[in-house]
Design brief:
Elements: E1 2-5, E2 22-25, H1 36-46, E3 49-52, H2 57-60, E4 69-73, H3 80-83, H4 87-96, E5 102-105
Parallel strand pairs: 1-2, 1-3, 3-4, 4-5
Length: 106
């Protein structure tokens, strides 16, 4: 599964996923600063899922129209140490989610 990590997530998280998930970042794709609507359209062409901490995405985008799984991570902060323990929950969500779903973790 190909997963795109949003800008506010630390690039080191791409290495925290199991082997069945190939994660990369918005920045490494050259999409840094791209607005959510355009970003989601770009992402759905190359990725199966988008992982973000942007709580506004749930209300600012019609996420059901995208062919992506969107994972919305709720952590105390976006610091690496606060998000890393949630990666197994993100993986569990990815294993059961379908395109067009938004899943909140935890």
């Amino acid at each position: 599964m190909r997963v795109l990590l949003d800008e506010q997530l630390n690039h080191r998280h791409r290495l925290d996923f199991s082997a069945w998930i190939q994660a990369t970042t918005v920045e490494s794709q050259g999409w840094k600063g791209t607005k959510n609507g355009v970003l989601l359209r770009l992402a759905e062409q190359e990725f199966d899922a988008f992982v973000t901490m942007d709580r506004g995405i749930e209300y600012q985008q019609n996420w059901r129209e995208y062919t992506l799984i969107i994972i919305l991570v709720f952590a105390k902060t976006n610091r690496y140490a606060d998000v890393k323990p949630l990666i197994p929950l993100v993986e569990r969500a990815l294993s059961t989610a379908r395109a067009g779903e938004l899943i909140r973790v935890p």
